[in-house]
Write the structure tokens for this entry.
Amino acid sequence: QVQLRESGPRLVRPSQTLSITCVVSGDTVSRKGVTWNWIRQSSSRGLEWLGRTYFNSYWYNDNHPSVRSRVTMNGDASQNQFTLQVTSVTEGDTAVYFCARGGGKTGTELDSWGPGIRVTVSS
Amino acid sequence: DVVLTQSPVSLAVTLGQAASISCRASQSLVHRDGNTYLSWFQQRAGQSPRRLIYQISIRDSGVPDRFSGSASGSDFTLRISRVEADDVAVYYCVQGTEWVTFGGGTRVDIK
């Protein structure tokens, strides 16, 4: 059974970079046909899909247009994990961040989620 | 973006009674591969979302058959046939046909 767990700093200063790692067990991040997704949840914006990374001979990313210019996602097969970076954060980036596995033909069927990590952006 | 509009925002149900949650999509969710990628998730307080149903009506493993999903065009419904105390949660519809977007959620409480 796949398990995902997010880790990273809980407090980030405005204008800095938020960085979160999702460690995966019970599955392999480089497995073809599976995507690795980032979602965040805040009281102001609800649940918001940020994007995904996946491996198909190379690592690919698909990021949501609303954050594309500030978001980077990477996969690391050697550590069986994937990461999210959000640059130039503001208080609007305060949220609970979740990682999730995506399956199915489109890779958008989010079948397993991590417990989430609450990140606050504040000076 | 595909917009998913859920209703009601909240509902209180008597134990053992049925509950229905609606989700309306701003456009067709039929993918070019012929499937409709509409899922339902349950999020209990302090937990991450848990998928209950995918592709409109397929229950995930371990999900009680009290939960069922249906569709009529771009209108989707989650039905809980006999609400139990354990069902208190926020329920979300999620589409995966065009990237991923979430409905606003419906809070289910016990009356």
About this structure: Chain B touches chain A through 23 residues (CB under 8 Å). The radius of gyration of chain B is 13 Å. The longest strand of chain B covers residues 19-25. Chain B has a mean pLDDT of 97.
